[in-house]
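tool_call predict_complex ligand=adenosine-5'-diphosphate
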Amino acid sequence: MTAPILSVEKVRKSFGNLHALDGVSLDIEKGKISILIGPNGSGKTTLINVISGLYRPDSGKVIFQGKEATGLAPYELYNQGLARTFQIPALFWKLTVLENLLVAGRKNPGEGFFKSRQDFLSPWLDTTAGWQLIHGLAVMKKLIRKRSLVNRLFRQRSMIRFLEQLYAAGVKPWRNFFTLAWIEGEKEATQKAGRILNLLGLSRFWNQPAYLLSGGQMKLVEIGRALMAGAKLLLLDEPVSGVNPTLAHEIFSRILRLRDELGITFFIVEHRLDIALRYVDQMFAMAFGQVIASGPPDQVMKNTRVMEAYLGG
Ligand code: ADP
Ligand code: MG
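tool_result ok
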């Protein structure tokens, strides 16, 4: 095994007399999908809460990317590349899918007048003029919404650059009007968002407000936001709970692609083994605040302590 991206060492967490975590140790391998199972009340969510900084453990250590991370605040861990999603997604409901991703981006240069969106879909990129058209429409939408349109237009540095380039290149204005009007930082962020939306299969919904999405799609947007912020390890608490089987498989296929194409590591709490089992590399089983088995999923599923925990619990 290569160096783990995350190590949990002898972590304890009690609520009053209840030992929710009773000495939990585990290693999460980099670039793998690990799943955590266990009967209700066995401590899974508490463990996720400790790892993501929501709870401080009573004792024990959390080590992330080789550095001690015990007791760091969630935002500190988030900045280091450790992100979690919640059982109930938390999005900016009125913002579009793309905007939800852009606000999560680090540089976040999104204050510019020209919301450069020409790169929102990488399959369109460099291939067709279709994206120019859609980007143009997006810009037009913004223009129409703004007052003192002309003033703003000519205050834009990018507008001047655009005109310079236009004349220098002797290009046809109607083809290039929209494409040259961008702000560099935002272009980068938008490109990244486009790539992530693609990987998540959300490109089609880029301009839809988040509240119009299905539950499963909301979970994917939440993952997308974490990826925009540079997440390396994603903790997912029941990503397919309440999601229909087709979409549930879709979500896990996307998780697989993120692992393979971006090298993202996943640590997932999930009950629905009928769905999840075929996608996971490593399994941990908990009962009564302890890890009772770990290893390849088929092995863990056959473990007698695991079977007893489920039958007894
Ligand atoms: P799981 O996610 O495996 O179902 P949890 O980690 O949510 O289990 O809970 C483990 C145990 O800790 C349960 O008995 C639960 O009631 C208790 N518990 C969890 N969070 C709290 C809390 N904030 N206050 C008191 N008890 C809690
Ligand atoms: Mg739980």
